[in-house]
Amino acid sequence: MTRYLVWRAVSVIPTLIGVSILVFLVTYFIPGDPAQIMAGSDASPDIVASLRHQWGLDRPIYVRYVVWAAQALRGNLGESYFSHLTVLQLVSRASAVTVELAALSLAVAVAIAVPAGIVSAVRPGSWFDLTATALGFGGLSIPGFWLGIMLIYVFSVYLRWLPAGGFTPLSSGLVPNLRSLILPAVALGTFASTQFMRYLRASMLEVLGADFTRTARAKGLTELVVLVRHAMRNALIPFVTVLGVQMGYLLGGTVITESVFALPGIGRLVLNAILNRDYQVAAGIILLIATAFVLVNLAVDLLYPVLDPRVRLGRGTFSR
Amino acid sequence: MTPATTVPAEGHGVASPPARSRVAGRRRALRWLTRRWLLSVGLAAVVALCLAAVCAGLLAAYPPDAQHMSVTLAPPSAAHLLGTDEYGRDVLSRLLFGARLTLLASSAAVLLAAVVGSALGLTTGFFGGVYDSLAGRVMDVLFSFPVLLLGIAMVAVLGPGEPSVVLAIAVASLPTFARVSRAAMIAEREREYVIAAHAIGAPVPHVIVRTLLPNLIGPLIVLVSLGFAYAVLYEASFSFLGLGAQPPTPEWGVMLSSARSYLFQAPWYAFFPGAAIFVLVFSLNLVGDGLRDLLDPRRTTR
Amino acid sequence: MASSSAKTRPSMTRRELLRKTGRTAAGVAAGIAAGAGAAAWPEFGRALVAAAAPKSGGTITISQSVDINTLHPWTGTLNVWKVIKTNVYDQLSYQDPVTLEFKPRLAKSFEWTDGNTSLVVTLPSGVRFHNGEPLTADDVKFTLDSIRDPKTGSWLRGFIAPIQDVQVLDPTHVKIKTDAVENQLIPAFAYVDITPRSQGTDLARKTPIGSGPYRFVEWVPNDRVTLQRAPRYWNEAGAGHVERIVLKPVTELQTRISQLLAGDVDVVYDFSLLEVPRLRADRRAAVSVVPPVDQMFVMYLNARKPPFNKLEVRQAVAYALDRDAFIKNFLAGQGRLDNSPFTPSHWAFDPKTEKAYTYNPDQVGRLLEKAGYPKGQGLNFTLLTPSGYPEFTQLSTMIQATFASLGYRPPIEEVDIGQWAARLNQTKDFFAAVDYPPRGSADPALTYSAGLFFPPVPANYNGLTPESIPGYVPAVHRGATAIQRPVRKVAYYSVQELWNAYLPGPVFCHRSTAHAAVQAVKAFVPHPAFQQRFTDVWLDR
Q1: Interface pTM (ipTM) of the complex?
Q2: Which of B276, B245, B270 is nearest to B166 (CA)?
Q3: Distance between CA B140 and CA A318 in Å, rounded?
Q4: Interchain proximity A15–B34, CB inside 8 Å
Q5: A113 touching B (Cβ < 8 Å)
Q6: Beta-sheet pairing, C267-271 with C507-518
Q7: d(C-alpha C337, C-alpha B49), whole Å
Q8: Which chains touch A (3 or more CB pairs under 8 A)?
Q9: Are C426 and A51 an interchain contact pair (Cβ–Cβ within 8 Å)?
Q10: Which residue of chain A comes nearest to B156, CA vs CA?
Q11: What is the pTM of this model?
């Protein structure tokens, strides 16, 4: 067991190296030139050339990778060509928004999914089950940006309950802060909630049919006790793994949600960095996101056997 | 969100609840029926959309990019059943021709991922060794990126447009297929019949392929139909970010995304492409879900 | 507000004056503009008239379409940055947003001396930068010299290119040496932000220090830029009323509009004209549409390679756009058809350009045939557009449809803005590309000096340089250096006619810009060229 855990932890290293190479290559091959963007469409070639030299863009690719990777290991991911803030400064500011948004979205997703999933599983085929399934499929079928625009129109412009985008930091008070994130969290969480619900429903169904549940029932325990003490606990354990994978979706989804809701988070930062050819910021953030994703999944993997002693870990599959 | 997160999760999920009472039995039967029913509805819708796409040339009253600048943003009428867009183009005709592109692009992305991914998964699962761990690492690396982010970066490299989007979605969903097929191969490799076949000198790959493929095809079809649904949504997201199909291509995501500028002037214009995407994705989800129930080996034994 | 007592009566009278002159100017201009088919001005006037006694204080939140990409005053090119920095820095001159005339701002006066080879700029005394340092002639010289230095990489270098030398006469006098009267200089100074020489030229890494009515507080990328009213602006009459200005980048148009209607922002600065009718109908918003005088839609054509090396094909493009339909459908009627960088309200506008090119698909067909591409056979070009600029794509899509109806459908290549600029300017890897260059309302000397087609970019077409058009370069030079308005007029008429005869790239139409504010925002007068100051704006709440 311990050997597995250590092996699993160590296996992250080549993954991270691969991630760094891929990130660097992708940002390197993005056509276009930050110097040109900075200098504007009126600029003459020598102006652009001098900016390129100033930023080290005229050095060979492997030199740039080695320099970049070595600096990254030391925690220096470079700085924005434009704002001249370091990537870490930019990320630390933006991640506060995104982490809060992701957490709230998860909360929204779980709040919808857990009751809906359990009731659907307890009464499979009931109207509730069918309705929840239908709504769930509906939630899965709406393009994210569309849902966002609609939410803003209904709740901000028409009902005027919530602000129409923009972020109010926690320092301005908890309530304004939460108000500014409710709609984006709902927009982002809806998709995830459907995933959760379907997952939970399936694993509940399995657990409810399992021997130990049958035994519990045979012992004469009430349905509620069976449900809460036996079924739910066991059904929720594999749920943890989905949370890990869902992080990936949430982090990707923030790109759209943050654009629609004008939130100064990671997603928008990275999108703008890519579009503006702000290589260092783009590379730095994608690297950080991927690293975070790898580590979250590592944590889930390490946590899983602890939570669920039944798990027998056999030969290593592709890390998950 | 990758298809992987739902499929393996539920693949082993829908097991038979114990026959507790006649009520439960009836409920199960009802559920079984509705599932079949939903599956047929979904399938019918997908097939209808495919037919519409194939027959777009016959069904459409106008060429998809014929502009009529005097009747822009017209509401639905006899001449334009679903109204016109900002260039006075017939929305219905564009939706029909757009179905081609949307279906083609999404299915291309998913099939590419499925073929390459499962080939990779099956071979790595069978051969193991250095090849396996190397490919495994590569898949791990790809899997470390949120799909949309990887897609945006790739589209930024390749330039906006449908081919880039297809490739981006395909690469991003590759690991899912690789993992599922690899896991299936490994499980199969150690089954008794394989060992037996090996013992009697039968060509092992042949045996495996003959027995494995039928078992694998079910989960793969499910993965494909769900991946298809995601691909449609991802395409819409790319269009929203301005990285999708090029004008005047009547791609649904592009239509929806340019319609949002006219949301209040001409709500129907935004409604129809939105509805088309919704119906397609919804049906694909129904199909995927229904097929999963249908193809789950444990269900068929019941 | 603590600083409100600093605002004294004289400033009020000056404002009163401004309001009155503004109203008459608006009235006159309304007549001109209405005659030209655009009736945008009355609203302009309304915004001015609406002012009662201005209140001081408060925070105004303004949404812009994208985030700024630098803090450098001389290298930043985005309109969103102009809107910000014009408030932080002082410029020697400014363009009046209503009359469109260029007037002294920081300078007390401009005077040509030494037989019209020197421009003496007189500065006020007692001006201080936000860091407390005094602004003197040395800072003006430092700024001009730095911009002229190619190493700085400023896009303004071409604007002030005629300057030979800058001499400091005394702390309040600068002498600018030229070869002749250079009509572009005073208008160009409206773009030149005076910075303290103590800050050096590496300004992108520093918090901007200017002498303007607002002090720069912070830039949080993707979130906001905050400006704070400067406690003691040297020119009390030009000081701001509002205490804080918060500018937020909001990319999604629908969100921007929703934020305004929900009252979450006070001003939506520069949004799609398509939303104008809807917002006009909404009582929560006051819409200001700037008349279509400054930005113009043009199509850059790469005359270095086929098919646009042939005049006929270039002309075909000019005939291929149904400009009326474009203006009606995509500019919400807020534009005007022109074949000139200027509009009839501009003194240099050549009436002969009015009918130069109109929409005529048959003519397109004839020209293609004449050029050796009958029914579009053999044509091969693309229309390059940047993504995120819907009007560019719309214009290209309409031209595409015209060519398609004649037999060849040019693909539209939508690339992101960075690549678009690089292909246009650096690699010249393009056939045709739409743009909307500004400065149609500026002095023609500036319009033609500042990169409108030639030079410097995306010009330098082999085979079609300014020099290769007989009479073009001398006419531009004459217009830029002559003193008499009639002489200049003749020169620029001939420039415009040569332009249309050789057609390096067609001008299609001018475009308005639209801005909206909540009702509590008073005296907001948008600037046609984004040289926006918010000093007259006040909040009634």
Answers
A1: 0.79
A2: B245
A3: 7
A4: no
A5: no
A6: antiparallel
A7: 43
A8: B, C
A9: no
A10: A30
A11: 0.83
